[in-house]
Design goal:
The chain is an alpha+beta fold. 17% of the residues lie in helices and 39% in strands.
């Protein structure tokens, strides 16, 4: 008889525990997230697949991924050659289901507001 009383109690306790640990879908990251950094008129090197390498005083270089990729962009032939000047808004990278296991990368998705070929 005690088992019959304890089973629903444990089930309810387990339900509250599981539901309180789940994360919502309201992460503020990715191309639709809020801006955490703005860059203006910085030299950049296009490395393909929508990715630009931008110099940064804090970490050396940032890798930013364009939210809207243009197929006309040309990949830089040399790692030391900056082939674009870009401006845009960088948002946070979504870290996935286990964010505590990953270090956030420098850079992130970027909404490019201006781009010029050098």
């Amino acid at each position: 008889m005690r088992f019959i009383i304890k089973a629903p109690f444990y089930f309810i306790l387990l339900f509250f525990f599981v539901s309180s640990c789940s994360k919502g879908d309201d992460e503020d990251c990715g191309c639709d997230g809020s801006t955490y950094r703005t860059i203006e008129n910085l030299q950049a090197r296009y490395s393909g697949d929508g990715t630009f390498v931008v110099p940064d005083t804090n970490v050396g270089f940032l890798k930013v991924s364009a939210c809207d990729v243009d197929t006309a962009w040309e990949i830089s032939k040399d790692e030391k050659t900056w082939n674009y000047t870009i401006s845009g808004n960088i948002t946070k990278t979504c870290l996935g289901p286990n964010p505590e296991l990953r270090l956030p990368p420098s850079g992130g998705p970027i909404q490019i507001t201006d781009i010029k070929k050098m």
